Amino acid sequence: MSDRKIYLEEKDIPRKWYNLAADFKNPPLPPLGPDGKPISPDMLAPVFPMNIIEQEVSTERWINIPEEIIEILYRWRPAPLRRAVYLEKYLKTPARIYYKDESVSPAGSHKPNTAVPQAWYNKQFGIKRLTTETGAGQWGSALSFACSIIGLDCKIYMVRISFDQKPMRQTMMRVWGGKCVASPSPDTNFGRKVLKETPNTPGSLGIAISEAIEDAVSDKSGKTRYSLGSVLNHVMLHQTIIGLEAKKQLESVKEKLPDVVIGCAGGGSNFAGLSFPFVCDKINGAKITIIPTEPTACPTMTKGPFAYDHGDTACMTPLLAMHTLGHGFVPQPIHAGGLRYHGMAPLVSHAIKEGLLEPRAYDQIKCYEAALLWARTEGAICAPETSHAIACAVEEAKKAKEEGKEKVILFNYSGHGLMDLVGYGKFLDGELMEYHLSKDEMDKSLEAIKDLPKP
Ligand SMILES: Cc1ncc(COP(=O)(O)O)c(C=O)c1O
After folding, report:
1. Rounded to the nearest whole angstrom, what is the distance from the C-alpha of residue 35 to the centroid of ligand 1?
2. Domains of the chain and any CATH numbers
3. Which of 176, 154, 184, 201 is nearest to 331 (CA)?
4. What is the pLDDT of residues 236-292, one digit of tens each?
5. Dist. CA 21–CA 66, nearest whole Å
6. Which of 361, 415, 422, 447 is 20 to 30 A away from residue 335, measured at CA?
């Protein structure tokens, strides 16, 4: 009999986050300011509270999770680790496929794992209101949820294309008291400028981030800060609770370290959350294949250069050393809204550079096929983002069959797709197409960074 659902007791929830920045052989490159010099932590103070900035720059290996945060996370954590026995059977694979089920959170994805600590640290610092961007709407709903539990106001700039595709996500945000507008919006100088130049733009995460930062820093009361759902070091840190729980759960069923670890990557946070504790094992000699997956429409890791670039379109953020397609990049309107980001977390990008990760790209047709196979074997309907991890898990399970190897495959089930059914409907009606970013489009987009400092 297989262990299909592997639970941890509440008392065994991890009490520290793991910081990969402590363990790299070569340190990551620092963020740079407008003068091309490394920024000092206080330069981030108009945007983030100091307690979060301290985490952002920390190189401590372990960081305590405050008890009050754990108390909120108990609403859904520890999250189950499950074994995909029905998919295994269908594929006739000797591989054992495990997945960490992050869809069980109130907002339906891994995003509340960082929304809660971010809202909590802001509240401790005396902040009253948070602004943010959202792609698919998962992050915006997670932050609305966290702000409502912790007692902060929340304004969300939602990428236009997702705003139109996923109206129910807006309702979710409103249920938790968040205010959601389509980005580009008439509410900020940058939004008005983009609307004037390109009135029909589908929007992008880069534009929405610029709007949310402008909103936060222009509040004269000094009581508004910005909150980012991915990319930055402190977000990766908060998400490591996923991988730390998964490790304990695999040990509890006497499973060895996984052979393959997989997560989809938009800004990198759910992938980092699951994989970084295993990247640590890899640095220490374990043989693990660790794969971040992305869309061929937005191939940041597999095609984009490692370069210094801004995290947003209006160039308000410091320069980050990362894989990028250029801060002005507006991806095709694929349904995995959370994977339509031009950059990649500096810690993930650095791990790629250090040879620790092996990124792969999948087109949306292959991903929806994997999502349907998942729904028709395991039963659940996954988020379009998550389908990029499932496509890879299926590929790896087939490979294990060809090789006749009993591999252990672990992937992150980053969210459910119950708010994303429009995309499924279009796929079933044959209305979706493959998108592959051409070299010409990429070169054009990368023009924007050619005069920036080089890593
Ligand atoms: C369900 C889901 N998975 C993955 C992602 C990608 O984000 P990240 O790379 O930060 O995990 C998102 C982003 O919105 C998401 O909603």
Report:
1. 32
2. 5-12+74-108+233-449 (3.40.50.1100), 46-63+111-226 (3.40.50.1100)
3. 201
4. 999 999 999 999 999 999 998 999 999 999 999 999 999 999 999 999 999 999 999
5. 20
6. 447
